Input
Amino acid sequence: MTVRSPHTQHFASDNYAGMCPEATHWFMQANASGHQPGYGDDVWTQRSTDAIRELFQTDCDVYFVFNGTAANSLALAAMCQSYHSVICTPVAHIETDECGGPEFFSNGSKLLVTEADSPSARLGKMTPDAVEQLVTKRSDIHYPKPKVVSLTQATELGTVYTVEEVRAISAIAKRRKLKLHMDGARFANAVAALGCHPSEITWRAGVDVLCFGGTKNGLPIGEAVVFFDRALSEDFAYRVKQAGQLASKMRFISAPWVGLLENDVWLRNARHANAMAQQLYEAIRHIPGVNVLHPPQVNSVFAQLRPQAIEAMYARGWKFYQFIAGGGCRFMCAWDTTPEAVDAFAADLREVNAT
Output
Protein backbone atom coordinates (compact mmCIF):
# COMPACT_ATOMS: atom_id res chain seq x y z
CA MET A 1 0.00 0.00 0.00
CA THR A 2 1.31 3.46 -0.92
CA VAL A 3 1.34 5.92 1.98
CA ARG A 4 0.68 9.42 0.72
CA SER A 5 2.11 12.38 2.60
CA PRO A 6 -0.32 15.15 3.55
CA HIS A 7 2.39 17.72 2.80
CA THR A 8 3.18 19.19 -0.62
CA GLN A 9 6.63 20.41 0.42
CA HIS A 10 9.36 18.70 2.37
CA PHE A 11 12.75 19.40 3.91
CA ALA A 12 14.69 16.30 2.89
CA SER A 13 16.45 17.78 -0.14
CA ASP A 14 16.35 20.66 -2.59
CA ASN A 15 16.26 17.89 -5.20
CA TYR A 16 12.61 17.41 -4.23
CA ALA A 17 11.63 20.73 -5.84
CA GLY A 18 10.51 20.93 -9.45
CA MET A 19 11.56 23.28 -12.23
CA CYS A 20 11.42 27.00 -11.65
CA PRO A 21 9.17 28.88 -14.13
CA GLU A 22 12.07 30.42 -16.03
CA ALA A 23 13.73 27.04 -16.60
CA THR A 24 10.37 25.57 -17.65
CA HIS A 25 9.84 28.40 -20.13
CA TRP A 26 13.11 27.83 -21.94
CA PHE A 27 12.70 24.06 -21.81
CA MET A 28 9.42 24.49 -23.68
CA GLN A 29 10.99 27.03 -26.04
CA ALA A 30 13.64 24.47 -26.94
CA ASN A 31 10.92 21.92 -27.57
CA ALA A 32 9.05 24.37 -29.82
CA SER A 33 12.12 25.36 -31.82
CA GLY A 34 11.79 22.59 -34.37
CA HIS A 35 14.58 20.26 -35.32
CA GLN A 36 17.94 21.14 -33.75
CA PRO A 37 21.35 19.51 -34.18
CA GLY A 38 22.16 16.90 -31.54
CA TYR A 39 24.98 16.37 -29.06
CA GLY A 40 25.39 20.03 -28.11
CA ASP A 41 25.58 21.63 -31.56
CA ASP A 42 22.26 23.40 -31.01
CA VAL A 43 21.65 27.11 -30.44
CA TRP A 44 20.55 26.60 -26.82
CA THR A 45 23.78 24.94 -25.74
CA GLN A 46 25.77 27.73 -27.38
CA ARG A 47 23.60 30.36 -25.71
CA SER A 48 23.86 28.87 -22.22
CA THR A 49 27.60 28.28 -22.59
CA ASP A 50 28.11 31.91 -23.59
CA ALA A 51 25.98 32.99 -20.62
CA ILE A 52 28.19 31.03 -18.21
CA ARG A 53 31.31 32.61 -19.70
CA GLU A 54 29.73 36.03 -19.31
CA LEU A 55 28.70 35.25 -15.74
CA PHE A 56 32.24 34.33 -14.72
CA GLN A 57 33.83 37.05 -16.88
CA THR A 58 36.34 34.67 -18.44
CA ASP A 59 36.77 32.43 -21.47
CA CYS A 60 36.18 29.06 -19.79
CA ASP A 61 35.30 25.69 -21.30
CA VAL A 62 31.82 24.44 -20.36
CA TYR A 63 30.34 20.93 -20.55
CA PHE A 64 26.87 19.81 -19.49
CA VAL A 65 26.28 16.44 -17.81
CA PHE A 66 23.23 14.83 -16.25
CA ASN A 67 24.16 14.91 -12.56
CA GLY A 68 26.64 15.94 -9.88
CA THR A 69 28.25 12.54 -9.48
CA ALA A 70 29.21 12.56 -13.14
CA ALA A 71 30.35 16.18 -12.97
CA ASN A 72 32.66 15.57 -10.02
CA SER A 73 33.90 12.17 -11.14
CA LEU A 74 34.71 13.18 -14.70
CA ALA A 75 36.25 16.50 -13.66
CA LEU A 76 38.56 14.78 -11.18
CA ALA A 77 39.42 12.12 -13.74
CA ALA A 78 40.50 14.89 -16.09
CA MET A 79 42.74 16.32 -13.36
CA CYS A 80 44.33 13.05 -12.18
CA GLN A 81 46.16 9.98 -13.31
CA SER A 82 45.44 6.62 -11.68
CA TYR A 83 48.48 6.93 -9.39
CA HIS A 84 47.41 10.35 -8.07
CA SER A 85 45.31 11.28 -5.06
CA VAL A 86 42.64 13.86 -4.26
CA ILE A 87 42.52 15.67 -0.90
CA CYS A 88 39.02 16.19 0.53
CA THR A 89 37.15 16.38 3.85
CA PRO A 90 35.58 13.38 5.63
CA VAL A 91 32.08 14.61 4.70
CA ALA A 92 32.89 15.44 1.07
CA HIS A 93 30.24 14.17 -1.30
CA ILE A 94 32.96 12.53 -3.42
CA GLU A 95 33.99 10.53 -0.33
CA THR A 96 30.61 9.60 1.15
CA ASP A 97 27.93 9.67 -1.55
CA GLU A 98 29.24 8.94 -5.03
CA CYS A 99 29.65 5.16 -4.87
CA GLY A 100 33.34 5.26 -5.77
CA GLY A 101 32.64 7.27 -8.93
CA PRO A 102 35.74 9.50 -8.72
CA GLU A 103 37.98 6.47 -8.18
CA PHE A 104 36.27 4.52 -10.95
CA PHE A 105 36.43 7.17 -13.64
CA SER A 106 40.02 8.11 -12.79
CA ASN A 107 41.02 4.43 -12.96
CA GLY A 108 41.95 4.36 -9.30
CA SER A 109 42.97 7.79 -8.00
CA LYS A 110 42.79 7.61 -4.21
CA LEU A 111 40.86 10.02 -2.00
CA LEU A 112 42.95 11.32 0.92
CA VAL A 113 40.68 12.49 3.73
CA THR A 114 41.62 15.26 6.17
CA GLU A 115 41.26 14.79 9.93
CA ALA A 116 37.70 14.59 11.18
CA ASP A 117 38.01 16.00 14.70
CA SER A 118 39.29 19.53 14.10
CA PRO A 119 37.04 22.59 14.59
CA SER A 120 36.98 23.28 10.85
CA ALA A 121 36.22 19.64 10.03
CA ARG A 122 33.22 19.75 12.33
CA LEU A 123 31.91 22.52 10.06
CA GLY A 124 32.60 20.48 6.94
CA LYS A 125 35.60 22.58 5.91
CA MET A 126 39.31 22.04 5.37
CA THR A 127 42.18 24.38 6.12
CA PRO A 128 45.51 25.09 4.38
CA ASP A 129 47.24 23.30 7.27
CA ALA A 130 45.15 20.18 6.65
CA VAL A 131 46.18 20.21 3.00
CA GLU A 132 49.84 20.73 3.92
CA GLN A 133 49.73 17.88 6.42
CA LEU A 134 48.51 15.38 3.83
CA VAL A 135 50.81 16.61 1.08
CA THR A 136 53.90 16.34 3.26
CA LYS A 137 52.92 13.12 5.02
CA ARG A 138 54.87 11.03 2.54
CA SER A 139 56.65 11.60 -0.75
CA ASP A 140 57.91 8.11 -1.57
CA ILE A 141 56.90 6.22 -4.67
CA HIS A 142 54.74 3.79 -2.65
CA TYR A 143 52.26 6.57 -1.77
CA PRO A 144 49.65 7.94 -4.21
CA LYS A 145 50.95 11.33 -5.27
CA PRO A 146 48.65 14.22 -4.22
CA LYS A 147 47.41 16.05 -7.29
CA VAL A 148 44.09 17.76 -6.52
CA VAL A 149 42.41 19.53 -3.62
CA SER A 150 38.60 19.26 -3.73
CA LEU A 151 36.43 21.80 -1.88
CA THR A 152 32.65 21.75 -1.60
CA GLN A 153 31.03 25.19 -1.80
CA ALA A 154 28.68 25.41 0.06
CA THR A 155 29.80 22.48 2.20
CA GLU A 156 27.87 19.34 2.98
CA LEU A 157 27.22 20.76 6.46
CA GLY A 158 25.74 23.99 5.12
CA THR A 159 28.75 26.18 5.77
CA VAL A 160 30.55 28.48 3.35
CA TYR A 161 34.20 29.12 2.50
CA THR A 162 34.93 32.84 2.42
CA VAL A 163 36.86 34.35 -0.47
CA GLU A 164 39.90 34.60 1.79
CA GLU A 165 39.62 30.93 2.81
CA VAL A 166 39.46 29.76 -0.80
CA ARG A 167 42.45 31.92 -1.66
CA ALA A 168 44.43 30.54 1.27
CA ILE A 169 43.77 26.94 0.27
CA SER A 170 44.53 27.79 -3.34
CA ALA A 171 47.84 29.32 -2.31
CA ILE A 172 49.03 26.17 -0.56
CA ALA A 173 47.71 24.05 -3.44
CA LYS A 174 49.63 26.05 -6.00
CA ARG A 175 52.77 26.03 -3.88
CA ARG A 176 52.55 22.24 -3.75
CA LYS A 177 51.71 22.03 -7.47
CA LEU A 178 48.15 20.79 -6.86
CA LYS A 179 45.05 21.64 -8.85
CA LEU A 180 41.92 22.99 -7.16
CA HIS A 181 38.50 21.48 -7.82
CA MET A 182 35.25 22.91 -6.46
CA ASP A 183 32.13 20.80 -6.00
CA GLY A 184 29.52 23.50 -6.46
CA ALA A 185 26.30 21.52 -6.17
CA ARG A 186 25.04 24.47 -4.07
CA PHE A 187 27.43 27.06 -5.46
CA ALA A 188 24.56 29.50 -6.03
CA ASN A 189 23.63 29.39 -2.35
CA ALA A 190 27.22 30.15 -1.36
CA VAL A 191 27.42 33.14 -3.71
CA ALA A 192 24.10 34.42 -2.36
CA ALA A 193 25.37 34.08 1.21
CA LEU A 194 28.71 35.76 0.55
CA GLY A 195 27.36 38.56 -1.60
CA CYS A 196 30.41 38.38 -3.84
CA HIS A 197 30.85 38.06 -7.59
CA PRO A 198 30.97 34.38 -8.65
CA SER A 199 34.39 34.89 -10.17
CA GLU A 200 35.77 36.00 -6.80
CA ILE A 201 35.40 32.56 -5.22
CA THR A 202 36.37 30.62 -8.34
CA TRP A 203 39.05 31.41 -10.90
CA ARG A 204 40.12 34.72 -9.35
CA ALA A 205 40.73 32.78 -6.11
CA GLY A 206 42.62 30.00 -7.88
CA VAL A 207 39.91 27.41 -8.62
CA ASP A 208 40.81 25.41 -11.75
CA VAL A 209 37.53 23.50 -12.28
CA LEU A 210 34.03 24.17 -10.94
CA CYS A 211 31.13 21.74 -11.01
CA PHE A 212 28.32 24.30 -11.14
CA GLY A 213 25.08 22.86 -9.79
CA GLY A 214 21.75 23.60 -11.44
CA THR A 215 19.52 20.71 -10.40
CA LYS A 216 19.25 21.87 -6.78
CA ASN A 217 18.52 25.43 -7.86
CA GLY A 218 15.51 25.07 -10.12
CA LEU A 219 16.61 23.02 -13.13
CA PRO A 220 14.97 19.74 -14.10
CA ILE A 221 18.33 18.06 -14.62
CA GLY A 222 21.92 18.93 -15.42
CA GLU A 223 25.16 20.31 -14.03
CA ALA A 224 27.81 22.37 -15.78
CA VAL A 225 31.49 21.42 -15.59
CA VAL A 226 33.39 24.70 -15.96
CA PHE A 227 37.10 24.54 -16.76
CA PHE A 228 38.83 27.80 -15.89
CA ASP A 229 42.12 26.09 -16.62
CA ARG A 230 41.23 25.17 -20.18
CA ALA A 231 44.27 22.92 -20.61
CA LEU A 232 42.61 20.46 -18.22
CA SER A 233 39.63 20.04 -20.53
CA GLU A 234 41.63 18.45 -23.33
CA ASP A 235 39.65 15.45 -24.60
CA PHE A 236 37.02 16.00 -21.88
CA ALA A 237 34.30 15.63 -24.51
CA TYR A 238 35.48 12.05 -24.99
CA ARG A 239 35.22 11.37 -21.25
CA VAL A 240 31.67 12.69 -21.25
CA LYS A 241 30.73 10.47 -24.19
CA GLN A 242 32.42 7.36 -22.79
CA ALA A 243 30.70 7.81 -19.43
CA GLY A 244 27.24 7.90 -21.03
CA GLN A 245 26.81 11.57 -20.16
CA LEU A 246 26.59 13.04 -23.66
CA ALA A 247 22.92 13.86 -24.20
CA SER A 248 21.83 13.40 -27.80
CA LYS A 249 19.11 16.03 -27.26
CA MET A 250 21.48 18.30 -25.33
CA ARG A 251 19.19 21.30 -25.74
CA PHE A 252 16.84 19.92 -23.10
CA ILE A 253 19.65 20.09 -20.55
CA SER A 254 21.16 23.37 -21.71
CA ALA A 255 18.07 25.45 -22.54
CA PRO A 256 16.79 25.57 -18.93
CA TRP A 257 20.19 27.05 -17.99
CA VAL A 258 19.26 30.06 -20.13
CA GLY A 259 16.28 30.69 -17.87
CA LEU A 260 18.38 30.20 -14.75
CA LEU A 261 21.12 32.59 -15.86
CA GLU A 262 18.97 35.33 -17.38
CA ASN A 263 18.25 38.21 -15.01
CA ASP A 264 20.17 36.40 -12.22
CA VAL A 265 17.33 33.96 -11.56
CA TRP A 266 19.94 31.49 -10.22
CA LEU A 267 20.89 34.03 -7.55
CA ARG A 268 17.31 34.96 -6.71
CA ASN A 269 16.40 31.28 -6.28
CA ALA A 270 19.38 30.75 -3.99
CA ARG A 271 18.64 33.82 -1.90
CA HIS A 272 15.09 32.65 -1.36
CA ALA A 273 16.19 29.16 -0.31
CA ASN A 274 18.72 30.67 2.08
CA ALA A 275 16.09 32.99 3.53
CA MET A 276 13.71 30.10 4.15
CA ALA A 277 16.43 28.23 6.04
CA GLN A 278 17.00 31.32 8.16
CA GLN A 279 13.25 31.50 8.88
CA LEU A 280 13.23 27.83 9.83
CA TYR A 281 16.21 28.32 12.11
CA GLU A 282 14.52 31.19 13.94
CA ALA A 283 11.31 29.16 14.26
CA ILE A 284 12.88 26.05 15.83
CA ARG A 285 16.02 27.23 17.62
CA HIS A 286 14.28 27.77 20.98
CA ILE A 287 12.07 24.68 20.93
CA PRO A 288 12.90 22.50 23.97
CA GLY A 289 14.51 19.26 22.82
CA VAL A 290 15.85 20.78 19.58
CA ASN A 291 19.59 21.43 19.48
CA VAL A 292 20.53 23.38 16.35
CA LEU A 293 24.14 22.51 15.58
CA HIS A 294 25.07 25.90 14.10
CA PRO A 295 23.31 28.90 12.56
CA PRO A 296 22.58 28.33 8.86
CA GLN A 297 24.76 30.03 6.29
CA VAL A 298 22.94 28.74 3.23
CA ASN A 299 19.73 26.76 2.67
CA SER A 300 20.05 24.02 5.29
CA VAL A 301 19.49 23.72 9.02
CA PHE A 302 21.16 20.96 11.04
CA ALA A 303 19.74 19.96 14.40
CA GLN A 304 19.73 17.11 16.89
CA LEU A 305 16.26 15.86 17.86
CA ARG A 306 15.08 13.28 20.34
CA PRO A 307 14.42 9.89 18.67
CA GLN A 308 10.76 10.08 19.69
CA ALA A 309 10.42 13.48 18.02
CA ILE A 310 12.00 12.20 14.81
CA GLU A 311 9.58 9.28 14.64
CA ALA A 312 6.65 11.53 15.44
CA MET A 313 7.58 13.92 12.63
CA TYR A 314 7.90 11.02 10.22
CA ALA A 315 4.50 9.77 11.39
CA ARG A 316 3.03 13.16 10.52
CA GLY A 317 4.28 12.72 6.98
CA TRP A 318 7.35 14.97 6.99
CA LYS A 319 10.43 13.87 5.06
CA PHE A 320 13.98 14.79 6.08
CA TYR A 321 17.31 13.05 6.33
CA GLN A 322 19.34 11.76 9.26
CA PHE A 323 22.95 11.18 8.38
CA ILE A 324 25.10 13.54 10.43
CA ALA A 325 27.28 12.01 13.13
CA GLY A 326 25.71 12.15 16.55
CA GLY A 327 22.14 11.81 15.39
CA GLY A 328 21.80 15.13 13.59
CA CYS A 329 19.00 15.80 11.12
CA ARG A 330 19.23 17.97 8.02
CA PHE A 331 16.36 20.24 7.03
CA MET A 332 16.91 21.54 3.49
CA CYS A 333 15.05 24.43 1.88
CA ALA A 334 14.62 24.89 -1.87
CA TRP A 335 14.00 27.67 -4.38
CA ASP A 336 10.24 27.15 -3.99
CA THR A 337 9.98 26.54 -0.23
CA THR A 338 7.12 28.64 1.12
CA PRO A 339 6.98 30.48 4.46
CA GLU A 340 3.78 28.54 5.14
CA ALA A 341 5.58 25.20 4.78
CA VAL A 342 8.29 26.40 7.16
CA ASP A 343 5.68 27.49 9.68
CA ALA A 344 3.79 24.20 9.42
CA PHE A 345 6.93 22.15 9.91
CA ALA A 346 8.01 24.25 12.89
CA ALA A 347 4.53 24.03 14.45
CA ASP A 348 4.55 20.24 14.20
CA LEU A 349 8.06 20.07 15.61
CA ARG A 350 6.98 22.23 18.53
CA GLU A 351 3.97 19.98 19.17
CA VAL A 352 5.88 16.69 19.09
CA ASN A 353 8.46 18.06 21.48
CA ALA A 354 5.77 19.21 23.90
CA THR A 355 4.50 15.68 24.45
Q: What stands out?
A: The two ends are 29 Å apart (CA to CA). The CA atoms of residues 88 and 113 lie 5 Å apart.
